[in-house]
Structures are given as C-alpha cells and as structure tokens.
C-alpha cells in the first residue's frame, strides 16, 4: 500500500495561500458525524501530492509562525496508508472526546500545543487508538523543534469501532491543557532548558490549587511556586495560613510582597511539616 503525506490546517489561525506551487490538495473539513454544527469552524485536511517538493515550504511556514509567536496554521504533518475516506472519517470523529455516553467535548488533539501533552496524559494504547490509521505524526515546538511519533496503524476493521475513551481524571487533566500552557509561558520566556516532566509536575500543582479552591487566575501562580520552590511547599504553616484566608485575601496578593529569602525559608522548612 502507498504511504501518503497529509497536513491539518486550522483556518481560524490563518491560511496556506502563501505556500508555493504545487499546492496541497484539499480534502475537506474534519467534521465529526455526531456534531455537524462544527462545519465551517472545523480543521481542514490536505494531502501533499508531491511531498518532496512541498514539505520544505510547509516546514518553513510552520517554523516562521511559531517563532513569531503565532498560533499554528499548519498543526501537523502526518502519514497514513489508509484510504482517504477512512482517514478523514477517523480524524473527524476523533475531534469529540467522550466524557460520558451522553456528554462529549471538542478535542483539539491535532493542535501541537495539545498533542505534546497527550504523550504523558494518555496510555500508549489510548494514543494508538486516537491515531487510528496514522503511521507517523510530526509537529513543531518552538523550544524543541520538530518531533515525530510513529504508530502501528490499526487494521481497517478495527477503525470502524475504535474510539478512545478516558477516565474522569484524564478528562479533567486534558481540559486543563490550556492552563498548563499559560503557566509554562513565563518559564519558556526565560529560554531555560525545561525538564520533560515539568508539565506533569505543573498539572499536579494545579490540581492541588483547584482543590484548595483557588480561582483560575491564582492557580498558575500557586503551581509555579510548587515547581520552583518545593513540591510540598503548601504544607508549610505560613502557606496554610494564606490558604485558610482566601476568602479575605487572594493567594497572589497575599504572597506578592514576599522576598526570595522568604521563599527559601519556606522551602527549607517544608520538610519539617508532614
């Protein structure tokens, strides 16, 4: 079977009119069968008929937009041996993430800012089910470059019934991806080499912040303290006092005037409180 190369385009972020000839072949919107109302706002699927000539221009456009800080127009470059109809159907239906038999949410798995986190949020078999007929998925991250993940494509017979399911905790974590990305921004801005497990650590701290009742605007501040000061910094009596007074003073205001020495002391003393 032939292996074809495709791209997914997010029209709300821009267009690909600036790509040179030969132009990618448009295969249509990825509209889930269960959500026809997404027509007009869904991502679009294109096939690269001449990938050797087209990929350099695609990569250049992706890199240029990422380094300018723009949201990605071309979200992914991928390969598949499946028929166009089967591929289109699978990728479109994957846009709905089932929370329960009666409740689903739009799942922007194809966005590199989402897909990069799915590596640690999902189990291997879940990710393989999500990808279905895809054999190689490539995306770009400004601070790490191009990343390719390969999959063993699911047999055609399995694709008709295969749909990724997630636990309640996984669903909650996936819904938190945008907040994780926003929390990572100040760290990435420092151009520091970030540890690969940092997003997972941030998610743990964000989960704690939510359980403490912090509003969304303060959860990121709390999470950064959790990864920069000490993971269990919230055990310290000083932090516990701040958390107990949230109804009077928001967390970010309560700690705004603290010095580096204050945080160092909290980090050192946190081991004493269990």
TrEMBL record:
Q: Which domain of life is it from?
A: Bacteria
Q: Give start and end of each DUF4123 domain.
A: 35-127
Concerning InterPro entries, the annotation shows: DUF4123
Task: Spell out the protein name for this chain.
Answer: DUF4123 domain-containing protein
């Amino acid at each position: 079977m032939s292996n074809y190369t495709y791209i997914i385009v997010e029209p709300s972020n821009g267009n690909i009119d600036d790509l040179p000839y030969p132009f990618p072949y448009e295969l249509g919107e990825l509209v889930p069968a269960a959500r026809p109302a997404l027509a007009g706002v869904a991502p679009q699927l294109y096939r690269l008929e001449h990938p050797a000539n087209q990929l350099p221009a695609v990569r250049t456009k992706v890199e240029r937009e990422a380094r300018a800080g723009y949201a990605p127009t071309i979200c992914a470059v991928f390969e598949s041996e499946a028929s166009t109809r089967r591929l289109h159907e699978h990728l479109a239906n994957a846009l709905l993430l089932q929370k329960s038999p009666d409740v689903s949410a739009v799942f922007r798995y194809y966005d590199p800012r989402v897909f990069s986190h799915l590596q640690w949020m999902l189990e291997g078999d879940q990710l393989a089910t999500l990808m279905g007929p895809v054999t190689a998925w490539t995306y770009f991250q400004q601070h790490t470059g191009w990343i390719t993940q390969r999959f063993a494509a699911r047999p055609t017979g399995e694709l008709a019934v295969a749909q990724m399911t997630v636990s309640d905790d996984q669903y909650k974590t996936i819904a938190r991806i945008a907040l994780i990305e926003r929390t990572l921004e100040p760290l990435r801005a420092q151009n520091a080499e970030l540890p690969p497990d940092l997003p997972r650590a941030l998610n743990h701290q964000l989960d704690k912040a939510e359980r403490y009742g912090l509003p969304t605007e303060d959860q990121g501040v709390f999470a950064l303290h959790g990864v920069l000061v000490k993971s269990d910094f919230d055990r310290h009596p000083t932090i516990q006092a701040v958390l107990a007074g949230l109804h009077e003073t928001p967390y970010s205001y309560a700690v705004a005037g603290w010095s580096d020495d204050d945080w160092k002391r909290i980090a050192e003393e946190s081991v004493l409180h269990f």
